[in-house]
């Protein structure tokens, strides 16, 4: 392959990457929300977009299924903790898009501070088991981690867990489910990730793109 393959995920990351692509002169020619195509063409013959799950972006870039991609710090940090490092991934830019935070939330009637102080075991449901494990280990809080793949908010409401570790942006979803944010773990934004081999072999194609992205980042 002589061209560039960029891995993106649907939703916020795709939408917020479009202006950066535009700054590099790249227009995506189909809408992933309506198209059934997994590979989207652009106005550049040499640049194509592959649509993958948010949590699969680092994997595609790491193993060269894509030359570069955009991934949340949540996904990158979780994968790095699980793998003991971010092998083969170069992270040149914080794109400052898709901003949110990873937080601990509980039902409003659960006294989290008291449970922590008493040294109680707390059941925590999350898809971020590595981030959660490290956070609670650092605090010396005993937790039973319950791995979920979606709708974390449901766990405290059904008695599956006392707490969740999940992404929060406006807090609207938590409020709608009568949950409260009791602790912030880390601030999240999306990063540009580049395959380390591609960075050398496709430097002439990648460098201008990385530079154009860098100049278009909104503080
Ligand atoms: P998957 O399908 O892989 O499990 P997902 O559907 O949970 O992923 P999305 O909710 O589409 O993933 O989120 C993708 C990325 O967008 C997250 O990893 C995060 O970095 C960012 N993100 C998610 N929710 C928000 C939000 N509310 N505000 C800002 N950014 C967010
Ligand atoms: Mg999704």
UniProtKB/TrEMBL annotation:
<comment type="similarity">
    <text>Belongs to the ATP phosphoribosyltransferase family. Short subfamily.</text>
</comment>
<dbReference type="Pfam" id="PF01634">
    <property type="entry name" value="HisG"/>
</dbReference>
<dbReference type="InterPro" id="IPR001348">
    <property type="entry name" value="ATP_PRibTrfase_HisG"/>
</dbReference>
<dbReference type="GO" id="GO:0003879">
    <property type="term" value="F:ATP phosphoribosyltransferase activity"/>
</dbReference>
<dbReference type="InterPro" id="IPR018198">
    <property type="entry name" value="ATP_PRibTrfase_CS"/>
</dbReference>
<dbReference type="InterPro" id="IPR013820">
    <property type="entry name" value="ATP_PRibTrfase_cat"/>
</dbReference>
<keyword id="KW-0328">Glycosyltransferase</keyword>
<keyword id="KW-0028">Amino-acid biosynthesis</keyword>
<protein>
    <recommendedName>
        <fullName>ATP phosphoribosyltransferase</fullName>
        <ecNumber>2.4.2.17</ecNumber>
    </recommendedName>
</protein>
<keyword id="KW-0067">ATP-binding</keyword>
<keyword id="KW-0547">Nucleotide-binding</keyword>
<comment type="subunit">
    <text>Heteromultimer composed of HisG and HisZ subunits.</text>
</comment>
<comment type="function">
    <text>Catalyzes the condensation of ATP and 5-phosphoribose 1-diphosphate to form N'-(5'-phosphoribosyl)-ATP (PR-ATP). Has a crucial role in the pathway because the rate of histidine biosynthesis seems to be controlled primarily by regulation of HisG enzymatic activity.</text>
</comment>
<keyword id="KW-0963">Cytoplasm</keyword>
<dbReference type="InterPro" id="IPR024893">
    <property type="entry name" value="ATP_PRibTrfase_HisG_short"/>
</dbReference>
<keyword id="KW-0368">Histidine biosynthesis</keyword>
<feature type="domain" description="ATP phosphoribosyltransferase catalytic">
    <location>
        <begin position="53"/>
        <end position="213"/>
    </location>
</feature>
<comment type="pathway">
    <text>Amino-acid biosynthesis; L-histidine biosynthesis; L-histidine from 5-phospho-alpha-D-ribose 1-diphosphate: step 1/9.</text>
</comment>
<keyword id="KW-0808">Transferase</keyword>
